Amino acid sequence: MPEENILRHEEWPAYRIGNRDYIHALGVISAVFNNLEFRLRSLFPMYVRRPLPVAYALFANSNNKRRLGLMREGINYSRHPDTIKDDVRYFLDCYKKCTDNRNVLMHSTVFFIFGPGDISCPQLAPPGHQPEGVGFQKFAKDDPFRINTYQLNIAELRKHADDLKALEVYGDRLYWHILKHYEPTWYQAWGFPEEAQHALPNRPAPPNLLVPIPPDPMPQNK
Questions:
Q1: 112-121 as b/e, with b when 16 or more CB fall inside 10 Å?
Q2: 189 to 40, 57, 76, 184, 192: CA distances (angstroms)
Q3: Which domain holds residue 28?
Q4: Tens-digit pLDDT profile for residues 96-139
Q5: Quick check: 152 pLDDT over 80?
Q6: What pTM value is reported for the model?
Q7: What is the DSSP string of 180-217?
Q8: Structurally, how many domains does the chain consist of?
Q9: I need a surface site. Which of 35, 41, 116, 192 has the fewest CB within 10 A?
Q10: Are 113 and 134 in contact (CB under 8 A)?
Q11: Residue 77 lies inside a defined structural domain of this protein
């Protein structure tokens, strides 16, 4: 690669967008969440009990609130053992938390957090210079005049990505376990060898919901 292309790559983007580690973590969160959503889609037809084309069309035309509502209602009428239904409910509860967190991070306006070595003025900063960190601000759903502010360090942001991945792996393994042991007609269509086990996976730790930082108290008149 020519030296000028290497330099251009290292400096991109020249505009302020945020610390590279933070932006990379946000990209990982976006990619892993899409895989997690696919796991939800896999489980969806088992509990809405519709033909696959109908179930997938319903999934595609529903928001997450409706998808989860339909699945939770359908679980009550499922012939699966209660222990399996509890595992699926656990997956749905964790998925709801992950979705809420992801919506905060992906639908917020970012603001920059400057460290002691940062140049806050974009006109004075060298090309590609990014601040130490980023924060997130999002309008509250129940109050359009309130802005919720979230500040996460890079370790907390990466943990959120790891929580998404752990739940995605759990959902995948749970799906195949249910298919093998309780949906034999569907399972046989996949052509797995008889010795395939698809053991019941252990539940991952539940994710923590992102909590906005308390607003600054209003100054008191003296």
A1: bbeeeebeee
A2: 20, 21, 26, 9, 8
A3: 18-117+128-188
A4: 999 999 999 999 988 888 888 878 877 777 777 788 888 898 98
A5: yes
A6: 0.86
A7: HHH-HHHHHTTT--TT---PPPPPPPPPPPP-PPPPPP
A8: 1
A9: 116
A10: yes
A11: yes
Map tokens 């942001």 to a residue: 157
- How many residues comprise the chain? 222
Contacts of 203 (CB under 8 A, 6+ apart): 87, 90, 170
**Which residues are CB-contacts of 46 (< 8 A; sequence separation ≥ 6)?**
74, 78, 178, 183
Would 9 be classed as within a structural domain? no
Residue 23 domain flag: yes
User: Residue 162 domain-assigned?
Assistant: yes
- Among the ranges given (162-166, 174-178, 180-184), the one the predictor scored with the smallest mean pLDDT: 180-184
Is the CB of residue 191 less than 8 Å from the CB of residue 127? no
Q: Which stretches does DSSP call E strand in the chain?
A: 109-113, 133-140, 143-151
